[in-house]
Amino acid sequence: MARPKRQLLATAEETSNPPSTLEPNQAIVRVVKGEGNNLYIVELPNTKTLLVELPPRFRSTIWIKRGGFLLIDTTAFEDRENKLDGEVINVIREEKQWRKQAYWPPEFVKKSTYPKDSGDEASTAGKMPPADSDSEG
Questions:
Q1: Rounded to whole angstroms, how far apart are CA atoms 16 and 97?
Q2: 64 near 103, Cβ under 8 Å?
Q3: What would you measure as the largest C-alpha separation in the chain, in angstroms?
Q4: How many C-alpha atoms does 8 have within 13 Å on its Cβ side?
Q5: What's the pLDDT score for residue 6?
Q6: Cα angle: 61, vertex 63, 64; to 5 degrees
């Protein structure tokens, strides 16, 4: 049976607002790839990779894409002997609001879609090709 709509909306609303501060055992990470069965390989700001699990409340509710950001708890599985390094606490959907927070890692700067052009060449977009005055006549 499907989850109630109010539960889906509550989960979505919960993930849209960033917390005011982060606990010492929490970290913002970038998703590298999905490993299957709600497991994801993520990258810390210092480029260390971790394997984290998506809790049941997010499964089939919020989709996670490569390059997206998550808030994880690194002490969630300390008492168990397994390969998991942490658990997802929050899925970062409203990235603009999160980037304004003081705890956002500077290593996760927003990259421009277009590469920076060197100022030597002028753009020819929207311009007519040069006229060949020598070939006329």
A1: 9
A2: no
A3: 87
A4: 9
A5: 78
A6: 140
| Length of the chain as a residue count | 137
Neighbour tally for 123: CB within 10 Å: 7
- pTM of the model as a whole: 0.73
Which structure tokens are listed for 2? Answer: 């499907």
For 3-40, the pLDDT digits (tens) are: 677 777 777 777 777 888 999 999 999 999 999 889 99
Cα separation, 85 vs 77, whole angstroms: 7
What is the DSSP pairing of strand 86-92 with strand 39-43? unpaired
CA atoms within 13 A on the CB side of 40: 27
Whether the CB-CB separation of 107 and 46 falls below 8 Å is answered with yes
As a whole number of angstroms, the distance between CA 110 and CA 123 comes to 24
For tokens 């590298």, the residue is 32
Beta carbons of 91 and 29 less than 8 angstroms apart: no
| Three-state DSSP class for residue 106 | helix
